[in-house]
Design a protein that fits this description.
CATH topology of the largest domain: Aspartate Aminotransferase, domain 2
Strand content: 15-25%
CATH class of the largest domain: Alpha Beta
Largest sheet: 8 strands, mixed
Number of helices: 14
CATH superfamily of the largest domain: Type I PLP-dependent aspartate aminotransferase-like (Major domain)
Structural class: alpha/beta
Helix content: 40-55%
Strand order of the largest sheet: 2-9-8-7-6-3-4-5
Radius of gyration: 23 Å
Distance between the termini: 53 Å
Amino acid sequence: MEKDYSQLYSQRAREMKASEIRELLKLTQMTDIISFAGGLPSPDAFPIDIVNNICQELIVKDGKLALQYAATEGVTKLREVLADRMNRQGMDITHRNVLVTTGAQQGLDLIGKTFLDPGDIVVLGAPTYLGGTNAFAAYMAKMESIPLDENGMNPDVLDEKLHHLHRHGKNPKLLYVVPTFQNPSGVTMPENRRRQLLEIAYNYDLLVVEDNPYSELRYEGDNIPSIMSLDTEEKVIYLGTCSKILAPGLRVAWTVAPKPILNKLVITKQSTDLCSSTFCQYVAYEYIAQGYLDKHIEVIKALYKKKRDIMLASLEKYFPEGTTWTKPLGGMFLWVTLPEYIDTGQMVERAIENKVAYVIGSAFHADRNGINTMRLNFTYSSDEFIEEGIKRLADTIKAEIEAHEKRTRESPYKPDKDGIITGV
């Protein structure tokens, strides 16, 4: 019997829960399962030969620097090229606004650690990125959810929620958004809503956390300015990453913030890991500085657009009536809504038996709603497996619908014209 150490854990640790996505991914490592579950880039997108050459040259040219500790803020020349790329996308920053982190997830953790006391309020979307809610929950924050529509977070609903909270003496600190090709829904917030969101943040003295890992993966339509590029009052903290546009294994990401905030985040990071991998930062720098990244993004976009189109066509072909899904213009995910009587949390075991995997929708709701929804990733699976996986998932859903209809036929209780159940 394993020894019980629970009485020694901190209150924070006792309340932490394992990521449902990470736990599900353990089940999907079997080679016969087609997985739409993880937020994984296609391994075919990794520029292995170029990175191999960069690593070999790096050891010879700058090995003594690349294998040494770096400043907590990160390697200066990497921060400079990142700032330059973001300024070309409409921002107005210098490298002194950039903190290199070990993945964007560390950026979220540092923000939580820096700003949140137990009971502090974070406002976020429903659904929203699970890693965001987990990071804030780790610091015992309370979540207030704003339902999303096809254009992301509705500013009118947000304003109403904040007004209600303030009337009851509750003053949120952070507003967390993934505005472009949102994880998990795939929807994008238009520019007018971004401007409205900023005005609301100014009115209520909120910091906006803009998590933006997918914006460069646009397959159609016009680019939309980031929220930070529209900010005039230094109320936005921005998160970017190489994970979706280069390789997640490098764990190179960055947080951009006003200098006073960035300085505090640096101090917070010093107690976390001193600095992110120097070697990986040098690799990322060389890849960007040598002009590979922008060309590589175009290759990725063509690869992923094809996969998205295959998945959308397969959904149209195989999914039953009563199901709907988003049609993202970019990113890595789409969001499926099933009939309200289907619980995707219960159905996932049947899906695994049918050798296909997804992520349950309730995992992306801080209030655990959305039980009839699911997230599908279209970037990881091979083209030929996408259609087969959707067909397997459709068969699973059809079986659930048929089982429900059978239960309804056999039930002695039936709803009347007003939906009220009475005995027969």
